[in-house]
Amino acid sequence: MHARSSEEDLTTALKHCAAEPVHIPGTIQSHGAMIAVCNQTLQVLYASINTSDVLGRAATDLLSQSLNDLCQREERHALLNGMIHQDTGQRVNELGLLEVFGREVIVTASPAPGCTLFEFEPATLLETAAPDTLRDLEFLTSQLRSVDQTSVLFDKTVQLLQMLTGYDRVTIHEFDAEGHGRVQAEAVVAGLDPYLGLHFPAWDIPAQARKIMLKNAMRYIADVDGMPVPVLAATPALPPLDMTAGHLRGVSGVHMQYLRNMGTGATFTLNIVIKDALWGIISFNHTKPRHPSQRMRQLCRNFAEFFKLQLESIQQTAHMKRLLKTDDLRRKVTNGRNEGTSAEVFEAAMVEDLAEAMQADGAAMLFKDAVFTTGITPPGEGLAEIFETSEFEPGVTSSSRLSEEYPTISAQCGPEISGILVAKLPEDSVVIFFRKDRQEAVSWAGAPEKTVIKVDGVARLDPRSSFAQYKAEVRGTSEPWTLDQKSIAEEIWSMLVSAEREALIERTNRQQSLLIDELNHRVRNILALIRSLSQQSLTHNGSIQSYVTALEARIAAVASAHDLGAEKTNLSATAMQILELEAAPYNQEDRRVTVQGKDVGIRSELAPMFALVVHELMTNAVKYGALSRPEGHVSVELQRGDNGLRVNWREDGGPEIQPPAAKGFGTTLIETSVPFELDGKVELDYHSAGLRAVLTLPESVLVDKVPLKALDVVSSSPFPDPVAPGNLEITKARCLLLEDNYVVSLDTARVLKTVGFETVETALNVQDALAKLDRLDPGIAILDINLTAGQTSEPVAEALAARGIPFIFVTGYGDTMKLGGMFASSPVLKKPIREDELRCALAEIET
User: Fold this and answer.
1) Helix, strand, coil % over all residues of the chain, rounded to 5
2) Radius of gyration from C-alpha coordinates of the chain
3) Residue 650 pLDDT exceeds 90
4) Pair 151, 70: CB distance under 8 Å
5) 64, pLDDT greater than 70
6) Phi and psi at residue 738, in whole multiples of 5°?
């Protein structure tokens, strides 16, 4: 019994194992001899010391000699025809029975760097009979042609090969993603312990050995107790001989001990490589020494190729079935997108189909604000945190060891889930597949633990001595996601991204065209709207000052409403906020627009479109309907039901209206935006007493949550306590105004002088402002944040701050303008500057 290995010894042993040069062992197996001949000079560069036993010529007599001098004409001709150059890609050339140096031997040629390896086996190893290899191969392959299930393919293969070769045990090992092998099929003689279903740890086959297995189709060890035969070099300057492709290549002593502990006397291995990866092996084990004949090796090697093709065919058929399933999912996505909103496409049935295609225990999808789940998923709060995590990049991410690789995510999933595969889509949409913790006993062929022994004071791995079934409880892992499943996930991801991208492009193009038309339409309407506001303000105000004040407030409200429709924001506005914002210009002295009912949020990307629809209703009311007369009134009622939100619009007190003979842009926008952009319905009734409209928005447009931030709604009493001009000492100082628009500069200067400034010096750019700063020595500055040619006013603000001069920023970007750093707390006013807001800002500076 070995003492528990220290971490240091184990690390040293693993490094030694990983560094062992198994491709240059310096020895060959004892049942044959070998020479290596230079491809250019035909000189013998290497020879095993037993050539005298097999070929009748001592190795020292062969080294540095040319084949032209060593061989008779016919012998030389046969060997030269068998020489292999590396650039041909050929791995082995079986020359069969030849006479070399007067002795009959079985000859095989294989490539090595700059030379060809010739391996010789005594003719006595030939089978006594000369069976028909092609006939046997035809029989073997015919037994597998109609097989369409991997389990049947595996079982038939081991049975046929055991019958053909006579080895005591034939097994098929399939490797998982981590390199562990599992015995999927076995044919074994009576009296030996079965290995079927057992797992073999990945470190049983070191990485460097796996690299050789990728290149060589076959490997055999005739006698695990055979003495290794050294290989001599012609000169000391020659490098160790690379025998990667040779079948006589010597075997690591550690591996030989491993086989002895296993009770094995001889082995024969066929390596199965699929898509440039080591899929697994067909392993032959015999309790006594056994030499596979060249004919048997050739037959098994060709049969293994057919086995691989049949396995790939079965896998491809299964893959095609999954592709058909994926195509069916793609059609559902496409049809769903064409028939309704994208949110409705990703319903529970879709998630169930996706989970089934991925062989997952559960799945969850977040699309915008809608969540769909099926099967085993984390609890609500945990799922929400997983959706919001930044640990996953766009694309596909997978793990079958969640607690080890993503501990934070594992904590949200709970112990029941150990596998996750995430397909992160654009627009913050996510599809996540879950697999439960295996919580099962895995049967290993012996305890899967590494032990260390000291050899000449150096720590080396000690092969385990027992291969009896050892059951280990596996926790914290799920069934691994196979390469095929990851490929399907990539296809699903591409499919959903493509569908969403097409929908997004279509929606964006439609909205862009609509917004361009809306911009032109608003430019035409703005003059009419301002004129109407001016007339109404003049009717309700007896003095010029009150008229100007009321008009400014209404223009500011119109600007705020414009901000909501023009700015792309991530905020979730509510239906009532949007309606109140659009109604604010007409609710100054009296409430001519009333909004009541149950409020509900509008999805952030759709709120501007809803605002445009409301704006057009309001504008039409101002131009043609109830708001075109002082006594007119608009009432809006919000009704929330099972099918979504119903917006009832009613106008009274306006002129008698008739259905329009031709639809204008505003009406067209309303009738197209609601069904196509908001997936809703609209009804317009041109009642003689006033317009009656009903807008219906589906649940997919709504969000039941508190807005992230209240919008800047102008209230019906927008003015704070007035600040008299005489109370502002700061107005006695000079004011520097930085504004790059000449017309806006004139209007802003007018407002500044209205509040009491006697001297206002204007600058059109940063350079001009800095020059005037030195000359003017102002008491305060008003700075437009964004200037032409990509400039900002920050350099001027920094110069003012250095001198202790207060300043106020002005912006035309509304709520989307955010200042950082040293200016995060600076006062900011939105254009156009209102007199009352300017006075309040000045009063705050003075205090």
Assistant:
1) 40, 25, 35
2) 42
3) yes
4) no
5) yes
6) -105, 110
Q: Is 332 exposed, middle or buried (0-12, 13-18, 19+ CB in 10 A)?
A: middle
Alpha-carbon gap, residue 760 to 750, rounded angstroms: 9
CB distance 478 to 410 below 8 Å: no
pLDDT band at 547 (very low <50, low <70, confident <90, very high): low
- Alpha-carbon span 459 to 13, nearest angstrom: 5
What was the pLDDT predicted at 500? 56
pLDDT 10s digits, 701-721: 888 644 433 333 333 333 344
SS3 annotation, 295-313: HHHHHHHHHHHHHHHHHHH
What whole-number distance in Å separates Cα of residue 503 and Cα of residue 510? 10
Give the whole-angstrom CA distance, residue 268 versus residue 259: 12
Token digits for 29?
């197996």
User: What is the C-alpha to C-alpha distance for residues 182 and 175, in angstroms, rounded to an integer?
Assistant: 7
Three-state secondary-structure class, residue 45: strand
The CA-CA-CA angle for residues 621, 627, 629, to 5°, reads: 130
Q: How far apart are CA 654 and CA 134, in angstroms?
A: 99
pLDDT of residue 829: 86
d(CA 836, CA 216): 86
The pair of structure tokens assigned to 70 is 């060593």
Q: In which residue are the tokens 């007339």 written?
A: 535
Residue 133 neighbours by CB distance under 10 Å: 13
Are 659 and 686 within 8 A, CB to CB? Answer: yes
> Are 93 and 84 a contacting pair, CB within 8 Å?
yes
Kindly state the tokens that stand for 451.
């032990």
Residue with tokens 């391996």: 119
- Peptide bond just before 832 cis, omega within 30 deg: yes
| Sequence-separated (6 or more) residues with CB below 8 Å from residue 318 | 484
Q: How far is the C-alpha of 554 from the C-alpha of 146, rounded, in Å?
A: 83
Would the pTM of this model clear 0.70, i.e. be above it?
Answer: no
Three-class secondary structure of residue 362 per DSSP: strand
Task: Return the structure tokens found at 732.
Answer: 């006695």
Among residues 434, 392, 396, the alpha carbon closest in space to that of 413 is found at 434
Residues 6+ apart with CB under 8 A from 217: 91, 92, 270, 271, 301, 304, 305
Identify the DSSP state of 120: E
Query: What count of residues does the chain have?
Result: 847
Q: Give which of 435, 395, 401 is closest to 416, Cα–Cα.
A: 435
